[in-house]
Amino acid sequence: MLPAPSADAFAHSQRVAAHLRSLIVEAGGWLPFSRFMEAALYAPGLGYYAAGSTKFGAAGDFVTAPEMTPLFGRTLAHAIAPVLAETGGDVLELGAGSGRLAADLLGELERLGALPARYRILEPSPDLRQRQQNTLARDCPQLAARVQWLDALPAHFRGVMLGNEVLDALPVELVHWTDAGPMAHGVTVEGEQFGWQDRAIADPVLRARAEALDLAPGYVSEINLAADALIASLADALERGLILLIDYGFVAAEYYHPQRHMGTLRAHYRHHALDDPFHLPGLCDLTAHVDFSAVAHAGMAAGLTLAGYTSQASFLLNGGLTELLMQTPPEDAAAYLPQANAAQRLVSPAEMGELFKVIGLTKGDVAPLAAFARGDRQYTL
Fold first, then answer.
1. How many CA atoms lie within 13 A of 40 on its CB side?
2. Which of 22, 29, 137, 169 is the most buried (most CB within 10 A)?
3. Which strands form 285-287's sheet, in the order they lie side by side?
4. What's the rounded Cα separation, in Å, for the pair 61 and 100?
């Protein structure tokens, strides 16, 4: 049984639904799913990430790795510190959530004597930007002056670009493979309800990608052209350094496996994963798993070098997660056990350790990352 929204939350969802219906009507009665998803998540003042509901942590709709334990951010700090030293560059975090990862990264980089001159955050949501500022002012006030919020990518950047659970929140194209070939799976309005309708694929790039997959009739899945565009933009801005992306997903052979014939699109509401992306618009996060093969190909097409691809478990264990955990004495059970339990969730194959992957893309002269030293799965891409 799903928890019922408050009266205010339900009224907000009704406003979001009305906005979505108006977009569909204005577009002639049919909207590509990518535009529906973009508006549901990012419409100013209305979308899930643009309005004021609690999203992260136990009181929200999902828990991200930085919310679980500072060990995640501290381990990432050890992984990227050599790149910051090599390039003399900054950190640019894409979509910094609650600001928890930024605070943990900065704190550990300070302990390592590896602080960048600036920690930049590209955050489109005014609501989340305010939360990030509050988190950093509370948890590392001595470092808050180093943090700079951006409205757009810088034209030139050196250092580390970091995205934790960013790619999964990009609007995806939905495709329905039929006897007549692949079709765009879009959204219509039926009374007050949303419904599905197929139309011919107008975008030649999307059509070529869908035809190349050659999936069986009846198969429905996602193609993330927005991820390709983001990777190309990051590559264009990066002069020398590392792009490090962490998310849940698969290589193409697993992503488009015959058994995954209904795709990976999900709505997340109060720690429940739902198959219905039309449930309570504006109150649900909409996500799709990441096709890491496509991410790697987009990076290489943009002139980047594939530095590594592995499971989150391998990356964190190679990066020193266990050693950082042991800095808390096991004898201090009250302090140690919560951290040990959280670390176990990060690396367990039954939890986040296997589903979440880490991909690294570099530009210029950058030494190999120790966190990719063992368990690299580049060959699977």
1. 30
2. 169
3. 272-274, 266-269, 285-287
4. 16
For residue 364 the two structure tokens come to 């210029």
Helix H or strand E segment including 232: helix 225-237
Domain that holds residue 366: 7-170+236-380
| Token pair listed for 126 | 């005014």
Is 196 contained in some domain? no
Q: Which candidate, 186, 175, 247, 251, places its Cα nearest to that of 215?
A: 175
Burial of 25 (0-12, 13-18, 19+ CB in 10 A): exposed
Q: Find out whether 105 and 73 touch, Cβ atoms under 8 Å.
A: yes
Q: Do the Cβ atoms of 305 and 361 come closer than 8 Å?
A: yes
257/260 Cα distance (integer angstroms): 5
Q: Report whether 289 contacts 260 (CB < 8 A).
A: no
CATH number at residue 251: 3.40.50.12710
d(CA 144, CA 131): 13
Amino acid found at 261: H
Structural domain includes residue 340:
yes
Return d(Cα 175, Cα 158) in angstroms, integer.
37
Cα–Cα dist 368/370, whole Å: 6
pLDDT digits (tens, 9 = 90+) for 103-112: 999 999 999 9
SS (H, E, C) 48-61: CCCCCCCCECCCCC
How far apart, in whole angstroms, are the C-alpha atoms of residue 14 and residue 205?
A: 35
Residue 60 CA, distance from chain mean position: 17
Q: How far apart are CA 364 and CA 75, in angstroms?
A: 24
pTM for the structure as a whole: 0.95
- Kindly state the tokens that stand for 91: 């950190």
pLDDT digits (tens, 9 = 90+) for 285-309: 999 999 999 999 999 999 999 999 9
